[in-house]
Amino acid sequence: MNYIKELYGTRELLANLTMREVKGKYRRTVLGQLWSLINPLATMLVYTVVFSFIFRAQPRVGDPSGLDIYPLWLMSGLLPWMFFTRVVNGGMASVISNASLIKKVYFPRMHLPLAVVGSTGFTWLNEMAVLSIALLVCGGFVLPWLPIVVVVMVLLAMFASGLSMLLAVANVHFRDMQHFTTILLQMWMYLTPIIYPISLVERQAEQYGSWLLDLYRLNPMERFVSVFRELLYDNRFPDGGDFLWCVLWAFVVFALGAVVFQRNEKKLAELL
Amino acid sequence: MTEPAVVVDNVSKRFRMYAERNDSLKTALMRGRKSVAEDFWALNDISFEVPQGSTFGLVGRNGSGKSTLLKCLAKILYPDKGSIQSFGKVASLLEVGSGFHPELTGRENVFLNGSILGMSKKEVTRKFDDIVEFSGVKKFIDQPVKNYSSGMYVRLGFSVAINVDPDVLVVDEILAVGDSAFQAKCQQKFVEFREAGKTVILVTHSMANIKRMCDQAAWLDKGDLVLAGDAKTVTAAYEADIKTGDK
């Protein structure tokens, strides 16, 4: 309880650390913040060419939105995923990359990974705004769903920051974690229906038994991606079960990450 | 004696010296959970009180545990035994310009550094002119700090830190910042600090500084407290010991 009070009492520090990340990142670049949009656009282009034209992945038509545009379908799932990986990678590295600060000044260390969530979230918000406009232009009816989208964004942010705090502590003990996580995240992405529709997995499950699909759906990111797609691409209420899973994952992982981080916080300066 | 500002009560701090440390997963797995460690007690059962409004000096040879104790006082390290109780807001000056981002301007960094040191935005805004005035980098305040000379950089960092206005200020050997004119300004600031009834705890190797500034002192040797009390008595004993040790 005291810790929460202290975190709240130093919230301006969190804001300033977030600002440092946001402002510092694109200083001395000609395009500035635009880079944060160019990045996902380039990824979109690559995946669209490879998976839509070459592999012919066919996502279902948006129901009831009627949208049938692969890049938009892709981005509805890819943007949340990219946010997730950036938070996990950045949050995990945040403790080590601020080692000099931790060794010299006292402040609640949790602000470091949280500032990564904040600055990455800022970029993500911009990306989602652009995506929403693109969806609107293409005939989606996304506006009434945006409040729920924001709620799910907060849930995903909680999930990602919980995981990044756990990994940040592990990374201080074993620097292998960051290399391991890179590989893990890569595999994780292909195990999540982001660039291909889940119907392909369902078809395999019909052949090999439904346990395959059950196993596949244990992946929390599958739930998040599907909820984001239902809101943004289909424009309908997300499946209640999926939504509850998202809430559950978000709260459990965040609480776990925060508790572990807070318990280990005092030892950080010594270990670094 | 007046009220204490900081009470150090039976503080011990242990460091693990790893002969072979498990800092990669491979070594941890190969060797099992145990890594080979030897305990090193950097601080051994230290107790003293720092009276409110005093300037308290920590002296001792290299490796005596001064900096470890200072870090414990600054809440960066935590004692393994005993406790440290402080009354009022504690700020530490172990390094100047902590968290400065080289690409951000001096102005942005003042706000960033200020909040890292525990100041609110309002406070920084209020003191901003003082800080800039004190640092003497007014002309360049809207330039990125990576273009600053190292002198300007430390001066700006120091000016922010000195304006934190805590009840207890913990200072490591950073008084030797900037040119002599700037140093004189810093000395003046410490005098003002003391006159305002604030407590300062500082580590320095300069006996002249201790004699001039401190009224109380503690002498540490190899993690043990040798003597604590009146600055004159402690420095005299310490200097005598150094002389005999050098023979």
In brief:
The complex is a heterodimer of chains A (272) and B (247). By secondary structure, chain A is an all-alpha fold. Chain A has 13 helices and no strands.
Regarding quaternary structure, how should these chains be classified? heterodimer
Global shape of chain B: globular
Number of strands of chain A: 0
Classification by helices and strands of chain B: alpha/beta
Helix and strand string of chain A, N-terminal first?
HHHHHHHHHHHHH
Helix content of chain B: 25-40%
Low-confidence stretches of chain B: none
The whole-number mean of residue pLDDT values of chain B reads 83
Give the N-to-C terminal Cα separation of chain B.
38 Å
Description:
The complex is a heterodimer of chains A (272) and B (247). Chain A is mostly helical. Chain A has helices at 2-9, 11-25, 35-54, 70-97, 99-104, 111-137, 146-173, 176-190, 199-208, 211-216, 220-234, 240-264, 268-271. Helices cover 76% and strands 0% of the residues of chain A. In chain A, α2 crosses α6 (111-137) and α4 (70-97) crosses α11 (220-234). Chain A contains 13 helices and no strands. Chain A is globular, with a radius of gyration of 19 Å. The mean pLDDT of chain A is 91. Chain B is of the alpha/beta class. Chain B is built from eight helices and nine strands. Chain B has helices spanning 25-31, 66-73, 106-116, 121-135, 150-162, 180-195, 207-213, 231-246, and strands spanning 4-20, 36-51, 55-59, 81-86, 90-93, 168-171, 199-203, 216-221, 224-230. A six-stranded mixed beta sheet of chain B has the order 5-6-7-3-8-9, sandwiched between helices. In chain B, strands 2-1-4 form a three-stranded antiparallel beta sheet, with helices on one face. Chain B is globular. The chains are: A mainly alpha (272), B alpha/beta (247). At the A-B interface, α2, α5 and α8 of A face α1 and α3 of B.
What keyword list fits this structure?
heterodimer; A: 272 residues; mainly alpha; 13 helices; B: 247 residues; alpha/beta; 6-stranded mixed beta sheet; globular
